[in-house]
Design goal:
With 148 residues, the chain is mainly alpha-helical. It has a domain of 79 residues. 59% of the residues lie in helices and 0% in strands. The chain is built from 5 helices and no strands.
Length: 148
């Protein structure tokens, strides 16, 4: 088939509705026919560009709880310190203090958030531990009476 003289299959489509003239239709037809002969692969591998700065890649700690992950996303610098503070708390108190810590951190900054944990969480944790110990004594005493 001589594509310069004879009409091609591509020209059977209605290209007039797009406002193409005869030369533009011919160029589009030839471009479509040559499209299949283009080879995308194989390509030469491109150089991989990596940053040499060490601070751009930060390895996140593994095995974080959901609440610890929230703290890490807000303030990764103080994660270890906050983990020490919340490690012995019951889950409900941990959730409360973490959410308050994040709210204060976002509103007032790091210093106020850390002051909040230092001043408020210590007494609350002690009270919670006393209540839990008293509850354990009560449940152990009740269970021992049920056994008799």
């Amino acid at each position: 088939m001589n594509t310069l003289i004879e009409p091609t299959e591509i020209e059977l489509y209605d290209l007039d509705k797009y406002g193409f003239n005869q030369d533009q239709r011919r160029a589009a037809s030839l471009a479509c026919q040559r499209w299949g002969s283009l080879h995308v692969f194989p390509q030469k591998p491109r150089d991989l560009c990596l940053s040499t700065r060490g601070d751009s890649f930060v390895r996140e700690p593994e095995n974080l709880s959901v609440l610890e992950r929230k703290i890490y996303e807000v303030n990764p610098d103080d994660l270890a310190w906050v983990q020490e503070k919340i490690q012995d708390l019951p889950e409900y108190l941990t959730k409360y203090f973490v959410s308050r810590y994040i709210a204060i951190f976002e509103k007032s900054g790091r210093a106020d958030a850390n002051t909040f944990l230092r001043n408020k969480m210590g007494p609350a944790a002690e009270r919670a531990q006393l209540v839990l110990k008293k509850y354990e004594k009560t449940t152990n005493h009740t269970q021992s009476r049920n056994v008799l």
